[in-house]
Design a protein that fits this description.
Strand content: 25-35%
Number of domains: 2
Low-confidence stretches: 1-16, 94-105, 114-122
Mean pLDDT: 88
Shape: globular
Structural class: alpha+beta
Oligomer: single chain
CATH class of the largest domain: Alpha Beta
CATH architecture of the largest domain: 3-Layer(aba) Sandwich
Distance between the termini: 61 Å
Largest sheet: 8 strands, mixed
Number of strands: 17
Helix content: 25-40%
CATH topology of the largest domain: Aminopeptidase
CATH superfamily of the largest domain: Gcn5-related N-acetyltransferase (GNAT)
Length: 417
């Protein structure tokens, strides 16, 4: 089996560190160089592990992000893939000056921020991520169905990441932290191979997912399933947004408005308590040019000016609510964000998706439109045993507060109109 790390000469690699025999893996530095075996092993049901998406992301990468790809073989047959990102991470840069949470005391808030920035300024390192920082969900690795248990899959990925870190060190790229993100509750019982190697388990904000009921054929069916006070909320938001003109932008129109679209994205991103990366300005354009009808950028116009937009990616049976941006000064008066959420629901129902993946952030307002919280688990290990011991404690301290009240807009099914 050939080990193919493009930045170095080729060499032979046999996996000796897992309980599963006859497994080999091949590393690649760029998707352009990845064998066509990737297309055999990658899941047909997940766009985000397929070549065309990974190519466009690599070519329009966030600042300071590098990529590595792993192909797994059993008896020389391609049976699995892993998508890895290397992010130069500075905790202080990632802490935002603003906060999405309510502050009880301005003085205490200021002191807390100063302490957090002092602590964060001491943390700067390269992180090897198995997964995708731009998405919420299990988009890190995949093995063909029925071959291995989830525990064995974790073991194989852990072993490959360990070897990859060694090879990166030879290339003068020192990895301080390994991170596997993000896995659902059902996977926790299979994570022992990671815990045995001193990976620390932690949670981040939950993934907000709306399951679209089979009897919802129209947006009115969705409204009929709601308690009356939530229907009133929908109608109030739609009334405030009645002057908004919606338009799905073509690639040429995205190109013409790149600066404005990016500034609106930055306006929203700056309000997050913690950001580990910033989008490449050309990312949306690349999505449209590559995915075409499977990507939508819906612009909101007021008085012939773009005041906001949301983006959607069709991922087979799932509709991925991707990044968005809007003019915060007009959000309250026109309920821009809430109208966006309802518009996404309408698209999901009318195009007969099974789920809408609303991802993290703005948890309470997303729950008010019917999305439910699904806890996601990550696994992280620092190369220093001392730092690793305190890793989750430091993370819990630095991450923003996310207190929120879950909402339950739907009547029991038997009571729905």
């Amino acid at each position: 089996m050939t080990f193919c790390n493009v930045s170095t000469s080729s060499s032979i690699l046999a996996n000796k560190t897992t309980s599963e025999p006859n497994i080999d893996y091949v590393f690649y530095q760029s998707m352009k160089d990845v064998s066509t075996d990737w297309d055999i092993a990658a899941p047909a049901s997940n766009l985000f592990l397929q070549r065309k998406y990974l190519n466009l992301l690599e070519e329009n990468a966030p600042n300071r992000m590098q990529f590595r790809y792993i192909l797994f073989y059993k008896n020389d047959m391609p049976i699995g893939v892993a998508n890895c990102q290397i992010q130069a991470f500075n905790a202080d840069d990632s802490l935002q000056q603003g906060s999405a949470t309510k502050q009880k005391s301005r003085f205490l808030s200021t002191v807390s921020k100063q302490i957090k920035h002092f602590v964060a300024s001491r943390f700067e390192f390269n992180t090897l991520i198995c997964g995708n920082l731009l998405l919420t969900g299990e988009h890190g690795f995949y093995f063909q169905e029925g071959l291995f248990s989830k525990a064995i899959q974790f073991e194989l990925v852990r072993s490959a990441l360990h070897q990859l870190c060694k090879d990166l060190k030879k290339d003068k790229l020192e990895i301080s932290v390994n991170l596997l993100k993000e896995y659902c509750e059902e996977c926790r019982s299979s994570s022992q191979p990671l815990l045995d190697e001193n990976y620390k388990e932690f949670t981040i904000q939950p993934n907000m997912i709306l399951d679209i009921r089979s009897d919802w054929k129209t947006f009115d069916d969705y409204l009929g399933a709601m308690y009356s006070k939530y229907r009133v909320r929908v109608k109030r938001a739609m009334k405030k947004g009645k002057d908004i003109v919606r338009k799905s932008l073509s690639a040429d129109e995205i190109r013409e408005n790149l600066d404005l679209l990016y500034s609106l994205y930055e306006e929203v991103a700056s309000g997050a308590g913690f950001n580990v990366m910033k989008l490449n300005k050309n990312y949306f354009l690349a999505l449209k040019e590559t995915l075409q009808d499977n990507f939508t950028l819906m612009a909101y116009y007021l008085d012939n000016q773009i005041i906001g937009y949301y983006t959607l990616i069709n991922n087979h049976k799932e509709l991925e609510a991707h990044f968005l941006g809007f003019d915060k000064s007009k959000n309250h008066s026109h309920q821009i964000y809430l109208n966006m959420l309802y518009d996404m629901v309408r698209v999901g129902i009318e195009q007969q998706f099974k789920q809408i993946i609303f991802a993290r952030t703005a948890l309470e307002i997303k729950s008010s439109v019917g999305a439910e919280a699904h806890e996601m688990y990550c696994y992280m290990r620092h190369r220093s045993q001392i730092s690793n011991h305190f890793l989750t404690t430091i993370y819990e301290y630095l991450k923003p507060d996310d207190e929120w009240q879950p909402r339950h807009p739907f009547k029991p099914v038997e009571e729905a109109e």
